[in-house]
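Please fill in the sequence for the structure shown.

STRUCTURE ENCODING:
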């Protein structure tokens, strides 16, 4: 793992350039949008697969959960070029929006950044979206095969993808718990905030994990309901894709999750990309984005 602290200027400059490239693409409008609840953020954008031809041929579904530290200013629009990129690769894509940090009064955290996430709304929404997805896919993606679903997500969205695949392992009193594993082909989590203990120690994304769950005793009380590293083994094929040069969500976070999985008797794949930071994983102009598509294809097809 590169020592980002040894060359802070270089690491920061690389991260800024990668972020600029990823956010330089115009947002791509979906083919259709549907609600899974009454709140304006409870919607899913659908991108029809391109290049799928032949009678009876259907495309696997990729469910995309965007990142942005669970903070309100970052919505699904910034990941729409990535969703369209996957559609051009022949996948049927469902990009999920969900409620994020508070807006208006109380929206700023102690450090001046927007508050990360809402408890329990963020989790309510992801669970509801995944539960509604099979019927919405049938309505909005007629060329999709709802029996072949892969979850992917970036950063905070990577956390949500891992969490959604582990709902059957939640404590018995969790409202989001399911009685069986989700019918998924797998999960491809991109630079995920996958272990809240390590993320908290490293102050990942300005303490976003602690803001999401709540400070003090709340952080410890809610971790069993929200931390993917405590919800193992899932029994679902899982791969983490991580840039070694990521300074936003460092490699140590992914490694901690993989180690926790191994201790629980589960093998989690970890694909480490040299000289790649946080944002190229969702940047259609970056080679790393093609690697992500291949990882998804290996599980989906």
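FILLED IN BY: designer on duty
SEQUENCE:
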């Amino acid at each position: 793992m590169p020592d980002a602290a040894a060359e802070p200027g270089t690491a920061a400059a690389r991260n800024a350039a990668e972020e600029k490239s990823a956010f330089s693409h115009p947002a791509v409008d979906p083919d259709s949008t549907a609600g899974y609840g009454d709140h304006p953020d409870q919607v899913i954008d659908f991108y029809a697969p391109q290049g799928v031809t032949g009678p009876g041929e259907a495309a696997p579904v990729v469910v995309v959960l965007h990142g942005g530290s669970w903070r309100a200013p970052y919505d699904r629009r910034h990941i729409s070029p990535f969703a369209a990129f996957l559609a051009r690769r022949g996948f049927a894509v469902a990009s999920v929006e969900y409620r994020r940090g508070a807006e208006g009064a109380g929206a700023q955290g102690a450090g001046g950044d927007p508050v990360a996430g809402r408890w329990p709304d963020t989790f309510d929404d992801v669970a509801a979206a995944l539960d509604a997805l099979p019927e919405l896919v049938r309505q909005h993606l007629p060329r999709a095969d709802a029996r072949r679903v892969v979850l992917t997500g970036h950063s905070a969205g990577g956390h949500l993808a891992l969490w959604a695949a582990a709902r059957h392992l939640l404590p018995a009193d969790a409202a989001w718990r399911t009685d069986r594993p989700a019918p998924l082909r797998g999960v491809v989590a991109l630079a995920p905030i996958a272990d809240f203990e390590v993320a908290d120690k490293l102050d990942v994304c300005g303490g976003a994990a602690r803001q999401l769950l709540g400070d003090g005793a709340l952080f410890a009380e809610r971790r069993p309901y929200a931390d993917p590293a405590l919800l193992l083994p899932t029994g679902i094929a899982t791969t983490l894709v991580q840039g070694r040069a990521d300074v936003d969500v460092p490699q140590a976070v992914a490694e901690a999750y993989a180690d926790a999985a191994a201790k629980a008797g589960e093998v989690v794949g970890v694909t480490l990309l040299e000289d790649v930071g946080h944002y190229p994983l969702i940047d259609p102009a970056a080679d790393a984005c093609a690697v992500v598509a291949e990882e998804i294809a290996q599980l989906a097809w």
